[in-house]
TrEMBL record:
Gene3D superfamilies: Winged helix-like DNA-binding domain superfamily/Winged helix DNA-binding domain (1.10.10.10). CDD domains: HTH_ARSR (cd00090). It comes from Hymenobacter terrestris. Residues 1-89 form the HTH arsR-type domain. The keyword Transcription applies. Keywords: DNA-binding, Transcription, Transcription regulation. It comes from the Bacteria. This is Helix-turn-helix transcriptional regulator. The keyword Cell membrane does not apply.
Amino acid sequence: MEKVAFILKTTAHPTRIAIVQLLAQQEGLSVTDISEKLHVEQSLLSHHLTGMKLKGILSSTREGKSIFYSLKMREVVDVIQCLASCTFL
């Protein structure tokens, strides 16, 4: 239960949930790619990405000037999907 609580606390924002859902479909997206797909400003997006990376939810790789993000903790997707399937939401 502690891991679930950690996941819920770390992803408790609509933008963070959208990032997780997007990266579950497409691994290795740059900040620019994610920003365009989610229609979120890069500065705000970078804040969310950095926080989730520091908490171990995401991983990143640098290629030149670009940073590409992927899901590191795949269980996050399961928790979000489980909540999304609740009938009361």
